[in-house]
Write a structure and sequence with these properties.
The complex is a heterodimer of chains A (about 140) and B (about 140). Chain A has helices spanning about 5-25, 60, 100-135; strands at about 45-50, 65-75, 80, 95-100. With about 140 residues, chain A is an alpha+beta fold. The mean pLDDT of chain A is about 90. The radius of gyration of chain B is 19 Å and the shape is elongated. The model of chain B has no long low-confidence stretch (mean pLDDT about 90). Classes of the chains: A alpha+beta (about 140), B mainly alpha (about 140).
């Protein structure tokens, strides 16, 4: 029972990272150059989750929970945009820019926030169990 | 003498129930944390199986001591192994259900129900144990005072 708060927290952290990635994707949906003006299209961030929690202290705890395996920057999430006035345009006037749909990102964000709430509910139950156990003697 | 006091009546069964539900809460929290993890299948242990095992141990105790006192000797099942010190080790089995597109068999409603029922069982065991402790405390204080 003592490990279950760690497990729920790892779930909350993972979902928050997904939410952050969705926000980053929406913010960078039209970015094709970096701060120096070089051609650097924004690559869509994709969060890869895996079960288990390598940061847990006990071996038993490491097999439970969830963690972010990597935040993958997808190099294939590009599509051609017609921007003939851009200095990075090719001979046909196209620039390869990010292929990010804000609708898809918002749906991802909704799912992540519901999963976050589910983890909060699990954490509340664990807290209630701990409080009850303390009241046994005291 | 202390052994007899802490193994009297329903205390061993209540303690076993609290251990089981407390540990199952970790399993359920793990399933909830992995609601959106691809390739993850939720696993659970059956509370009915545990209650049957507990019932058998209580019947065995009654046959052995003729009354309601004494420690419980739980056999253990495929899913729940009972160690020497009374702690439990789980071997959960697959929850089944529909596999979604990311090969996860999540079922939020079922998970929430399981968690609520588990907490209910925990509360029952806890409240009964607290009442029992209260009786013990009264008995002790009256002997001294």
């Amino acid at each position: 029972m003592f490990g279950s708060l760690d497990i729920s927290t790892s779930g909350m952290v993972a979902q928050r990272i997904r939410l952050t990635a969705a926000s980053a994707n929406i913010a960078g949906a039209n970015v094709v150059e970096d701060q120096y003006g070089n051609y650097a299209p924004f690559l869509r961030r994709e969060v890869m989750l895996a079960s288990g929690d390598p940061s847990a202290t006990s071996r038993d705890g490491q097999s439970l929970g969830v963690h972010v395996r990597e935040v993958y920057q997808n190099p294939d999430a590009l599509r051609a945009r017609y921007m003939p006035s851009s200095p990075h345009a090719d001979e046909n006037g196209y620039v390869m820019g990010p292929d990010i749909s804000s609708v898809a990102e918002q749906v991802d964000a909704m799912e992540a926030s519901r999963a976050y709430e589910a983890n909060v509910a699990a954490a509340e139950v664990s807290k209630a169990m701990l409080a009850q156990a303390l009241r046994l003697i005291a | 003498m202390l052994q007899k006091t802490i193994q009297a009546g329903s205390l061993p069964a209540l303690e076993a129930m609290m251990r089981f539900t407390g540990q199952r809460q970790r399993l359920l929290a793990h399933n909830i944390a992995n609601l959106t993890t691809p390739d993850f299948q939720a696993k659970d242990v059956s509370p009915q199986g545990f209650q049957e095992m507990l019932g058998e141990a209580v019947a065995k105790r009654r046959k052995r001591t003729g009354g309601v006192d004494g420690g419980l000797d739980m056999r253990g099942s495929r899913e729940v192994k009972v160690r020497r010190d009374g702690s439990l080790s789980f071997r959960p089995s697959d929850s089944g259900g529909v596999l979604l597109h990311d090969r996860n068999n999540r079922d939020v409603e079922r998970l929430m129900q399981d968690m609520t029922e588990n907490y209910g069982m925990y509360r029952v065991a806890n409240d009964l144990m607290r009442a029992r402790m209260g009786v013990l405390r009264t008995a002790i204080s009256q002997r001294v005072g």
